[in-house]
Amino acid sequence: MADSAPRVAIVTGSESGIGRATAVSLAEAGFDLGITWYREQEAADATAEEVRGLGRRAEVRHLDLTQLPEAADVVDELADALGGVDVLVNDAGTGQSTSILDLDFGTWREVLGTDLDGAFLCLQRAARRMVAAGRGGRIVNITSVHEHQPRVGAAAYCAAKGGLGLLTRVAAIELAEHGITVNAVAPGEISTPMTGQEDEDPTSPGHERPGIPLRRPGDAREIAAVVAFLASAGAGYVTGASWAVDGGMLQMGPMAGSHMDSDDWRRP
Predict the structure, then answer these.
(1) Hey, which residues are catalytic here?
(2) Residue 257 included in any domain
(3) Model confidence, pTM
(4) Number of domains, the chain
(5) SS3 for 254?
(6) Of 164, 147, 68, which is closest to residue 109 (Cα–Cα)?
């Protein structure tokens, strides 16, 4: 296991939120990092400085998954700069909130292209590198609870995350013979820029979520900890799985909802 332990990780969308927390967590575990950004280079540079402060190398590149397929060249660029890729975390993504009747095709394609096509291309590039190196590897796709359950107004997002979940399972089967594991992490509501809660403490007053069993949103570092485990040697026999990190939301089935403002569901 020591000879095949991952050494270089690429985390897409690591300028903020889950991606940034994941990059830092992997650096703490001893990885050198490939960091990508879409809108804010300064934020990505700050992530890189935090990684370097932990004694690890960091390379930063711009990644625009609306520009496919050439955007996936970034995976190869980072692998060349860092000497390979042993772990890929597909975190870059986008979403929308529009009813099916009002959803225009351009928005549909942007979400599917970013969240599914882009993730596929990055996965493929990294997997080819891993196979060629012959050391195995780890691929972790950040999906969502909406990989498993629908949400009104999120048709494109749910379709993309559901597709990414099945892509994860197919890739796990196909890449297993090469010693590459492929898993998904499915977050619930997490305090990040995507939910308008950047750098907020989800346990602080004002963040109560009666519709979530643990009564609060999650912290990006709680997602990062699960990713770091899946990227570790200790998870060498875990593949094709989707790890829900959602405070128990998916267990509620039809009772679930981060929007709920009452505890009435807790009483039969």
Answers:
(1) 157
(2) no
(3) 0.90
(4) 1
(5) helix
(6) 68
* CATH number for position 27: 3.40.50.720
Residue with tokens 């969502």: 144
When computed from its CA atoms, the radius of gyration of the chain, rounded to whole angstroms, is: 18
Instruction: Name the nearest CA neighbour of 13 among 64, 69, 87, 77.
Output: 64
Per-residue pLDDT of the chain (268 residues; tens, 9 = 90+): 344 455 999 999 999 999 999 999 999 999 999 999 998 899 999 999 999 999 999 999 999 999 999 999 999 999 999 999 999 999 999 988 899 999 999 999 999 999 999 999 999 999 999 999 999 999 999 999 999 998 888 999 999 999 999 999 999 999 999 999 999 999 998 886 655 556 667 666 677 888 888 888 899 999 999 999 999 999 999 999 999 999 999 998 766 666 777 877 777 5
State the maximum Cα–Cα separation within the chain, in Å, rounded to a whole number: 58
Distance CA 202, CA 128 (A): 39
Q: What 3-state DSSP class applies to 203? A: coil
Residues in the chain: 268
